[in-house]
Amino acid sequence: MENTADKKIEEMKAKISVLNEAGKAYYQESREIMPNIEYDKLYDELLALEKETGITLANSPTVNVGYEVLSDLPKEAHASKMLSLDKTKDVDTLSAFLGDKKGVLSWKLDGLTIVLTYQDGKLVKAVTRGSGEIGEVITNNAKVFANMPVSIPFKGKVVLRGEAIITYSEFEKINAQISEAEAKYKNPRNLCSGSVRQLNNQITKERNVQFFAFSLVQAEGLGDNSSASPAEAAPETNSRKEQLDWLKSQGFDVVEYKITTAESIQQDVEWFASHIKNNDFPSDGLVLLIDDIQYGEKLGNTAKFPRNAIAFKWRDELKETTLQRIEWSASRTGLINPIAVFEPVELEGTTVSRASVHNISIMRQMELGIGDTIKVYKANMIIPQIAENLTRSGVETIPHKCPVCGGKTELKNDNGVEVLFCMNPSCLAKQIKAFTHFVSRDAMNIEGLSEATIEKLIAKSLIKELADLFHIERFKNEIVEMEGFGEKSFNNLVASVKKASHTTPVRLLYSLGIPNIGVANAKNICKSCGYSWDKIQHLSIDELTEIDGVGNIMAQAYVNFFAEEQNQKTVKDLLLEITFEEIDIQESEEQILQGLAFVITGSLEHFENREALKNLIESWGGKVTGSVTSKTNFLINNDALSGSSKNKKAKELGVEIITEDEFLEKYEVKMDA
């Protein structure tokens, strides 16, 4: 019969396996397979078992620091092992840790720890923390961090540590530029990690990485130079605070901090907590460091932790609530994620009613069922999560049909994690780009409908076809709760949709996303049909190829598009929602620029912008292109003597360069005063 000790060892092995898998997923694969609070709970349970048994296994996360680096960047061993910090969620523990000493309390930034070395006032080396023993050399990348001083006043050798981060606003900006959902970054830390470890530092520079120093390791070489200025002299101090101040004098941004004592620690922690919601940078807690350097060093280290510092993790505000339902959110990759919807509760000053469950594996682990009593919290006081299911009634039925298209779903194993996929290649959730194109400026021009908002509306099954966008007012409650939206934004969106419902055949034709039908071709096709939509929709291949700029391949794709039953339904439903504006069709003799090709460059004086001049030229039968070629008739440029590439190309090809005034005079254009 298995004895108690053996059972505890087996229990430890099971917890180690789960924790190491979760750590690998988070740090190496940018995935999340369990909530933070569940990881911390397992970690603490493992630690308690190790203390109880006196046994610590070699692969335990309580003794292993970090993970092996995997990139092709050069590797380098650190001069001394970089230890992680012991942690607590109890302010009284912080007070006891300080005793009668002063401490430096600062943000625990959530990015990538970097060790910098300066020699002769120049940055000569930057190495990531890596495994704690071996890091990756990223010197060229560090030199392009947005706020990194590449030269400093001090000319001796300086070694310091700090955190490379990417702000939330920069994270949102970069993710908004990525069209594919699977390519989007999960959080600022993952984006920062990938940006710092690029092989091409131009990419790093474009990511706007920032660096905040938090520790001076070494500064030597000029300590005896009495004629040196304070900035040029080595900091002969026994204070961590004074070291940070000296680093600031060298041009570094240092992590925001407060000097604290056992008596003031509670108040100072509350100050940091009150500022989290206004921060643009990611933080997962605080760091408390003893200010007295010599005293702190005498304390020594444990196998994993230094004894002169401790990390404080926010004690999550937990609230009990009732699980009302599971919503299934489909994405453009086909992945369908469970979303827990529960009775609204107040957490960290805001009302929360939804939380991602991430995947089917977590849903099964928690045995989530409708009506269960659950505890919810905000991870790092920001992201709603489920901490625990108290009643565990059993997993709610996993849908066999996609919530968006009704197609068949399938459970798959993704690196040990069970996930649900929609198997229909034509699923609407996979057609986000078509919706994004439809609302774009040159198409229906619906302002306020970002790709992210469209994706959320489709995932919630609120819109199922393009025509549904014209009934956006039906989804007020859902939209005003979305990030970045409020009552005013919603009203602006409704007004934009209403305005877009009065449109032109050209805009509608272009918005349908027919292969190779750009704005210019849409204009030519509509003009050839006298702007009659019935004629536009029923053009034959022969009729299309007679139109300037339309070839056989384009014509075939055009005819195929309107022959498809689903597309016919889409167009039919759209025509019920829109009204075509009346168009003043020019008589053929008024097409005075027919057959002429123009290029416009530089600033204009008589027209609001180049688009306005372009519209005039095209309304008179002319064509406007973006580059000068042998087929260009005129380059319109008010600075005919400029050395621009377009001017040079026009002169090489013998293309006539005319000013805006010369164009107006040449074609007898009368501008309003």
Largest sheet: 7 strands, antiparallel
Give the C-alpha Rg.
32 Å
Helix content: 25-40%
Total number of helical segments? 24
* Structural class label: alpha+beta
Report the uncertain regions: 65-71
Give the overall shape. globular
The end-to-end distance, rounded to whole angstroms, is 101 Å
Number of separate strands: 24
Strand content: 15-25%
Mean pLDDT: 83
Provide a descriptive summary of the structure in words:
33% of the residues lie in helices and 21% in strands. It contains 24 helices and 24 strands. The strands form six sheets. Strands 12, 13, 14, 15, 16, 17 and 18 form a seven-stranded antiparallel beta sheet that branches. The protein has a five-stranded mixed beta sheet with strand order 2-11-10-3-9. Helix 1 (4-29) runs antiparallel to helix 2, helix 12 packs across helix 13 and helix 16 (505-511) crosses helix 17. The relative contact order is 0.07. Mean pLDDT is 83; it is low at 65-71.
Short descriptors:
alpha+beta; seven-stranded antiparallel sheet; 24 strands; 33% helix; globular
Layout of SSEs?
Elements: H1 4-29, H2 36-53, E1 75-77, E2 87-88, H3 91-98, E3 103-109, E4 112-119, E5 122-128, E6 134-136, H4 139-142, E7 157-165, H5 168-176, H6 188-196, H7 201-206, E8 210-220, H8 240-249, E9 257-260, H9 265-275, E10 283-290, H10 293-298, E11 309-312, E12 319-330, E13 335-347, E14 350-356, H11 360-366, E15 373-379, E16 383-389, E17 409-414, E18 417-422, H12 432-438, H13 451-459, H14 476-480, H15 487-500, E19 502-503, H16 505-511, H17 519-528, H18 533-537, H19 541-545, H20 552-563, H21 565-575, E20 579-580, E21 597-600, H22 610-619, E22 623-625, E23 634-636, H23 645-653, E24 656-658, H24 660-666
Parallel strand pairs: 2-11, 19-20, 21-22, 21-23, 23-24
Antiparallel strand pairs: 1-6, 3-9, 3-10, 4-5, 4-7, 7-8, 10-11, 12-13, 12-15, 13-14, 13-18, 15-16, 17-18
